[in-house]
Design brief:
The structure is a single chain. By secondary structure, the protein is α/β, with parallel strands linked by helices. The protein has one domain: Rossmann fold (3-Layer(aba) Sandwich). Helices cover 50% and strands 19% of the residues. It has a five-stranded parallel sheet, sandwiched between helices. Helix 3 (58-67) runs parallel beside helix 4. The longest helix is centred in the last third of the chain and has 23 residues, at 106-128. The chain is globular, with a radius of gyration of 15 Å.
Length: 135
C-alpha cells in the first residue's frame, strides 16, 4: 500500500519508516505542508501527518485533503503533541481519521497503521463493488 509520511522529526521519521519498510509498504516522505499537498497527487492509501509541519500545519493540510473530492476517503492520521490541549481541540475540526500522540511507541504505531490500512482496503473494495456501481 502507498503511504505518505509528512514528518520533520528525524527520530520519528526513522522509526515510522523502519516499521513501514518492514511491512513492505511503498513510502513517500515529505517535510512540509506544501510538499504534502503536492504529493497527494500520488493517491496514497494512508497519510501520516505531523501536526506541527512548517509552511502549512498538519491540521490545515488534513482539512484541505478531506475537502478535496479526490481525497476525502484517504485515511489521515495526525501525530499530536501529548500535553497541548489547544491541539486536541483542533483535531476534532480538521477531519483526521485517527491520531498518534507523542512520544510515539513503535508497537502502537505499527498496530494503528495495520488497522488503518485494513480500513483503507475495505474502503477501496466498497468503492469498487458492483452493487455500489448499480445505483
Amino acid at each position: 500500500m502507498k503511504i505518505l509520511l509528512a514528518q520533520t522529526d528525524i527520530a520519528n521519521l526513522k522509526m515510522i519508516s523502519s516499521i513501514l519498510f518492514s511491512e513492505e509498504h511503498e513510502l513517500n516522505s515529505v517535510s512540509d505542508g506544501i510538499e504534502l499537498l503536492i504529493a497527494m497527487q500520488e493517491n496514497p492509501d494512508l497519510v501520516i501527518v505531523d501536526a506541527n509541519l512548517p509552511e502549512i500545519n498538519g491540521y490545515e493540510c488534513c482539512r484541505l485533503i478531506k475537502h478535496d473530492e479526490r481525497n476525502r476517503h484517504t485515511l489521515v492520521v495526525l501525530l499530536m503533541p501529548t500535553q497541548d490541549f489547544v491541539a486536541w481541540t483542533r483535531l476534532s475540526g480538521c477531519g483526521a481519521d485517527d491520531f498518534l500522540k507523542h512520544p510515539l511507541s513503535p508497537h502502537v504505531v505499527k498496530t494503528k497503521i495495520k488497522l488503518l490500512l485494513r480500513l483503507s482496503e475495505l474502503h477501496q473494495q466498497l468503492r469498487q463493488s458492483p452493487l455500489r456501481n448499480k445505483r
